Amino acid sequence: MKKINRLGLLTSGGDAPGMNAAIRAIVRTAIYENIEPIGIYRGYTGLIKGEMEVMHSRSVSNIIQRGGTILKSARSKEFMTKNGRTQAFENLQKNNIDALVVIGGDGTFTGARIFGEEFDFPIVGLPGTIDNDLFGTDFTIGYDTAINTVVEAVDKIRDTADSHDRLFIIEVMGRDAGFIALRSGIATGAEKILIPESKTYIDNLIRLLRHDWSKNKTSGIIIVAEGDDSGGAFEVAKKVNEKFDQYETRITILGHIQRGGSPTAMDRVLASRLGYKAVKALVEGEKDVMIGEINREIVYTPFEKSIKHHQTVSLELLEIARVLAI
What we know:
Layout: E1 6-11, H1 19-32, E2 36-40, H2 43-49, E3 52-54, H3 82-94, E4 99-104, H4 106-119, E5 123-127, H5 143-164, E6 166-172, H6 179-187, E7 192-194, H7 202-214, E8 220-225, H8 233-243, E9 248-253, H9 265-283, E10 289-294, E11 297-302, H10 303-308, H11 315-324
Parallel strand pairs: 1-2, 1-4, 4-5, 5-10, 6-8, 6-9, 7-8
Antiparallel strand pairs: 2-3, 10-11
Helix pairs in contact: 1-9, 2-3, 5-6, 6-11
């Protein structure tokens, strides 16, 4: 097993709160292990262009509480090509980088898996995505912060809904998965939660609204994941207004506010723990794996498995949401 003297690290894809905490943990653990950390800017794009620099302990001071990523992030179409990956590998060789830690989601790990196989290069990944849809970890870095951001926003919106007897239809992120919508919906007492994993029947939604109206419930919150088969908040509002006009309807798209902000304590600790273990895993000879946490234990999941088997939503949480909405 080749000794690691220089370690590259990058963040790729959508940013997530807690990425900076992970960067900090990787840099300082590497230094502790007498490994020189090399920060690569703008994900795989920076790797191809050679945008990198040596990082020191002071490089990551005062960042654990910051959202976003100090290494910047990007989605690279060029890395999807063999020529792009070859150029990236040549830059790693030119800078004497022996291993790589990538922080990101599905697309990041797909690229890492292909690259690792093509060049037999040691890579491990950290799950950094607010969607929480990666197989091999209970929670991804950024997810806890994202749902807390949604909860804070919805709590404020409910005050207005109650004051003006309005039905608010709130769209949250989740193009392919409803984890944010489901947990934030339960936490805010939403009357209805619409997610991609569960088919939406507008007639059932209308029946629920009529039932609520008959019980003198004059306001409400519907949480919609952007990837729900209903077509999103605007389509839901249109269909509701066509069949049930007792409520005055308002639409709120929370959008990218969910990506930013100071990470929660949970995300900071998770990112720190996974960042530490990423360096340890490489030192021990691990590669082509995602570092995750399941039942509070650190686990290694092969990239191929983490990207092919997406985490599924809890049926129990779906049932809880349904029962508590009556």
